[in-house]
Design brief:
93 residues; alpha+beta; 5-stranded mixed sheet; 2 helices; 25% helix
């Protein structure tokens, strides 16, 4: 992937998203796409996803994750950010 073509999306998921394996499903789903990033629980009960990659890969990844975890998601907030200079792999933070 050419880093110059990358996008960085930050997605906050709310609902019953902690304690249901959301981060692990996210990490497994990320392996199916050409994306890098992190997923972490937030103190307010939401989950934050940072996804970096080509626009089509990031969108497909977020769409697939949202579909897989739809029973637990009540609301999704998504915004773009400037991609980092360097990114590797996907991790649970």
């Amino acid at each position: 992937m050419e880093e110059g073509n990358a996008v960085h999306k930050v997605v906050h998921f709310s609902g019953r998203v902690q304690g249901v394996g959301f981060r692990y499903v996210t990490a497994r789903t990320a392996r199916e796409f050409d994306v890098a990033g992190t997923v972490r629980n937030l103190p307010d009960g939401r989950v934050r996803l940072d996804a970096v990659g080509r626009p089509d890969e990031v969108k497909a990844f977020i769409d697939e994750l949202t579909d897989r975890m739809s029973d637990f998601i009540r609301e999704t907030e998504e915004r773009g950010q400037t991609p980092p200079d360097r990114f590797d792999g996907f991790s649970i933070a």
